[in-house]
Structures are given as C-alpha cells and as structure tokens.
Amino acid sequence: MDKTAAHDLAPVTVAGLGPMGAALAAAFVDRGHPTTVWNRSAAKARPLVARGARHAQTLPEAAGASPLLVICVTDYAAAKSIIEGAGDALAGRTVVNLSSSTPEEAREAVGLAAGFGAAYLDGTIMVPVHVIGGPEAVFFYSGSRPVYDAQLETLRALGGDVRFLGDDPGLAVLYNTALLGLMWATANGYLHAAALVGTAGATAADFAPVGLDWLLPSVVIPILHGATKEIDEGVYPGDAGTVRMNLNAADHLLETSRAQGISTHVPRFLKDMLERTVEAGYGDGSYMGMIEVLRRPAEG
C-alpha cells in the first residue's frame, strides 16, 4: 500500500495484546491503518511496534490516539476496566469490544461507554488466531446499526466475513455461545461414536469418512436445514419418524454402549431428553419437538 493510501485510512487503537489481540493489531498494521496499541504488560507491544504500530503508555493516551478503540481481553471484567481506565478520553469515540462476555454484560457495556461519551459495538471472533486478517476470518457484531455502518470499512481490515446480527448488543455473544454449545455437542456425539466402533477395532481414521464426510453433510445438515420451518412454527409432523421411534433407538444405543464396555453418559443424556419430550406431549411428532423441552426454564 502506498503512503498516500495508508495516510487516508482511519487510525485504530487496540487494547489487549494477548495472542488474539496481537493478531488483530497486526492485521490493522498490515492493511495500513495507523495503529496504536496498549497492554497492561508493555513488553507485549514490542513486536507490534517493530511492525509499525505506536505504543501508548496509558489508557487515556491509547483511547485518545484514534477514533476507534478495539478491546480484546480475557473477559468482561477486564474490558470494563479498560473502558473505565480510558475514562473521559473516550468522548466522541467508538468502542468495539471483541472480548469474551455474556449477553447481559454486552448490554451493560453500552451504558458504560455512553457514560464516557463513547459509542459502543459488541462483537465476537469466530475463528482461531492464525486466521485473523485472512479471507477465512468470521466476525459477528451487534448493537447500533449506525455505529456498525460507520466502522465497517475499518473493521474489514480484520479480514473475511463480517456479519451484523441485529440491534440487540447481546446478539453477537449469544450466537457465539450457542455455536460453542453446538460444536461441543457435535464433538461429544462424534467421540462417543468413535469410542463405540473402536470396541470392534475400528480406528478414528476408519470411522471419519462415514461419520464426518458422509453422515453430517449428506444426512444431518439437510435434515436440520429442512426442519427450520417446523422449529419456527412450532409444528412437528411425525410422518418421517417420531420421537417414540427415536427413543427406541436410543435404548439400543444405551444398551450397546453398556455391552461394549464404554461410557453411557452421552446415550443416557439423549434418552433422558427423548423421554422428557414424550412426557411433554410431543412423542408422536418429529425429533424437532424436543426444542419445546429445551425452551423451558431450567429446573431447580
């Protein structure tokens, strides 16, 4: 990028230089944005300074250096301390928080930033560190649409797919948390399945082409895509298979796991959820009726 083009790019400050924060700062530097960095441990700024960033000694200095402050730290408590530490230097600026938090904390942060005269946008990073800055990167944002629109060009420097989810500041982290649960549940099912076939001598390499390359993309994903109308409308026709049928199969999974000498934790959970779905009156409907049980408040 030539110097004139770089000069026209908006300055950015990144606060928090752990592995992810450092990757964000590096992406801004590499795209030519004048980039200021701050970290509680100043030594972490040195590689970025060598790369072309400017190191701010204090939080007010860091916040005052750019119209946009990007925060990437471990949790909301740390992000909150950065916002409070920057204080009045945030007036007229925008805070984009890419730290781990909860929906409630994201909503609270809007008022916290506004108290210092700053606009606020919450976001989540959906990819590992090494993807930042590249086309595979994915970021979710939520909160004020005008704030998002105003900062979008700068945020695109982080690479990849940038998605605005809605006006509720808690939406980005809510999606992130939901997707983590989906990832873990999928991984748990796969690991149990691999353990089960492993009792017959099949390796993970033997099983993966069937379990991952065929079942998920060819069977599971199309079924789930096709079920979106059922879920949204709350109508669960059982013509293609009922909860009761799945409960019978879950019994087989549980007994086979026990007979093969492996853990029954995963199939016990599945059977329990299917039984709860039957008890809730959805036994003759499709498997998707289970969402009505999941939508209920936690017991106890």
TrEMBL record:
Keyword Manganese present in the record's keywords: the answer is no
- Kindly indicate whether the keyword Protease belongs to this entry: no
Database matches in Gene3D superfamilies: N-(1-d-carboxylethyl)-l-norvaline Dehydrogenase, domain 2 (1.10.1040.10), NAD(P)-binding Rossmann-like Domain (3.40.50.720)
- Domain NADPH-dependent reductive aminase-like C-terminal: from-to ranges: 168-296
Q: Where is the 6-phosphogluconate dehydrogenase NADP-binding domain?
A: 12-160
> What keyword terms does UniProt attach to this protein?
Oxidoreductase
Q: Which SUPFAM superfamilies does UniProt cross-reference here?
A: NAD(P)-binding Rossmann-fold domains
Spell out the Pfam families in the cross-references: NAD_binding_2, RedAm-like_C
**N-terminal signal peptide:** none
Name the protein family: Belongs to the HIBADH-related family.
Q: What is this protein called?
A: 3-hydroxyisobutyrate dehydrogenase
